[in-house]
Specification:
homodimer; TIM Barrel; alpha/beta; seven-stranded parallel beta sheet
Chain lengths: 345, 345
């Protein structure tokens, strides 16, 4: 077994078990923090914040100043990849991301994988800056969107509850779809490897739209591309610590872990604890899975649920986290209560 | 064992197995049919269509004239219940339903269960009319929304991808929430019993928003109220044939069936066939679960998937259906191909 590094969260991803689980909070650098809103207001837009290392470093570190968290997660967005490939990405107030959707071979031909790392150099500078700013025992998490999830935006032009445009494109134009996915696998592998080179300890692959797929589509859109992505990373870094987060995959999560070989898996809050315990290999690290709205509401219902989660995963490698991103209306006092409770048991 | 009725779909709900499964299509009376759009255009609005028996009967029967389907499903909407309770419900063009959200005890006090059946008399007239119009071997399906799903609209004021307003209300105001749920159980039980009295053979309980719930919320919001609803129905009609459809419940579906005792369960398209086969009791009838976008796209990918579904459920009671409602852009020729394929095997 590999030696412990002293970074509690990294060690947990590698399979070590502690009495008190390490924790971070998805979207922990975000709008629920006044200091984040202040920095955000000083930028020309969301992508400007992602591409300005000084500011991105600042907002990444903010939550660790307030709360006893075990990891910082790079402040960035999954849509920097399409942006870097040459597809125009804008973030509109109250609307989320807007892209010129990819609709045919001509649109696809305009994208260039070779440009990606140059374009994302500011993000990699952020990772380097974070590496030198962080305490030694804190884990630095990098990330990217999984190919399918990124493709849903590239094909759909914006977020949608059912990803219908992307799903229809994949069924109607399987070859073009495959070209796009191969491009995303390639770009994401280079990007994640560059994040490791810049100092990331662990990376998380966000498959935010793993729901709404039957198992054939899940295999073709989610599992196969993620397997390729993991292979490309491990060909260079055989022991790269990876967290997969196939949100909404439910009964397909155990198969996803086996096929992809990720070290750890993020569980959304709709994953029943008993199902996870019974069907996910005890060698895989689990991460999750408090409903963010329980954190908004706070009090006994939250703490009771936290205890259930902690008890369910006692004795196995477990990173405490939410089951989805923290929401803007979350009271900071509730976050403090949560962290104290997890850490103080 | 109960005798066969000759209504193939009803018999299947009761556990009989046929070589060729009975089939219907969720939202089969809908916008993909030009004859539906014509009737719809002649009304003052969506609820007007639901409350005009002559027109509701016409659109209910339309898909059976075109396709060899085994059931007609009452044309109505799950939001007739809040409308009947006294909450204002409007359907706005391109926006879906809009309600004045329930926010406190005063709002709740304005609702009246005693008014429901009077208000819904036109819907019950539709059921009666359908009963006398339908061929003897066709099953008539009635339905209602499950309490939680209806509550998400009553509390949220409109549809939302995460039902956040309703989920927060349930956590913050558990007593008021319980009052609302009890009211919905009561109203829905009376409404479904009245549908049986009017001639429905089977009823389906649509839990369209069973996703986004951790297992504690799933138990409290979905399972417990549905158990109460089923009890109230079975207290009057012990052998009432019931289909539950907890959309998105994934790994929680087997527990839902056991707890509620529904005869049949609708499976959304994200339910892996292998999981269903292994974890759902072979005595329960399964219904589903083709992705509606496969029907939009059509051709080989659709027929291959249909074959997988049929093979997975061979030898057990299975109603062929989509895993969610048919969408407006579905080509009618693809529906014909689907029906011919299922029926012609």
């Amino acid at each position: 077994m590999v030696q412990r590094t002293g970074k509690k969260l990294l060690d947990c991803v590698r399979g070590y078990v502690d009495d008190v689980p390490p924790m971070w909070i998805m979207r922990q650098a975000g709008r629920y923090l006044p200091e984040y809103r202040e920095v955000r207001a000083s930028t020309k837009g969301f992508l400007d914040l992602c591409y300005t290392p000084e500011k991105a470093i600042e907002v990444t570190l903010q939550p660790l100043r307030r709360f006893d968290l075990d990891a910082a997660i790079l402040f960035s967005d999954i849509l920097v990849i399409p942006d870097a490939l040459g597809q125009n990405v804008r973030f509109e107030q109250g609307e989320g991301p807007v892209l010129e959707p990819i609709e045919n071979a001509e649109d696809l031909a305009k994208l260039e994988v070779s440009k990606v790392l140059d374009h994302l150099n500011p993000v990699l500078e952020t990772v380097k800056g974070l590496r030198s700013s962080l305490d030694e025992n804190k884990t630095l998490i990098g990330f990217c969107g999984a190919p399918w999830t990124v493709a849903t935006y590239m094909l759909g032009g914006r977020g949608s509850p059912d990803q219908a445009k992307a799903r229809l494109f994949a069924l109607a134009e399987p070859e073009l779809f495959q070209q796009l996915m191969d491009m995303l696998v390639e770009a994401s592998a280079e990007y994640l490897l560059a994040q490791f080179d810049a100092g990331a300890d662990v990376v998380q692959i966000f498959e935010s739209w793993a729901l709404n797929l039957d198992e054939v589509n899940f295999q073709n859109f989610v599992v196969n591309p993620t397997v390729k992505l993991v292979e490309k990373i491990r060909a260079v870094r055989p022991d790269a610590p990876l967290i997969g987060f196939p949100r909404g995959a439910a009964a397909m999560v155990p198969g996803y872990i086996k096929a992809t070989g990720v070290n750890a898996v993020g569980l959304d809050y709709a994953m029943p604890l008993e199902f996870a315990r019974e069907h996910i290999s005890p060698l895989a690290t689990v991460q999750g899975n408090l409903d963010p709205l329980r954190l908004v509401s706070g009090g006994k219902q939250m703490l009771d649920r936290v205890d259930q989660i902690l008890e369910a995963f006692e004795g196995r490698p477990h990173i405490f986290n939410l089951g989805h991103g923290i929401v803007p209306q979350t009271p900071i006092a509730h976050v403090e209560a949560l962290v104290n409770h997890v850490k103080g048991r």
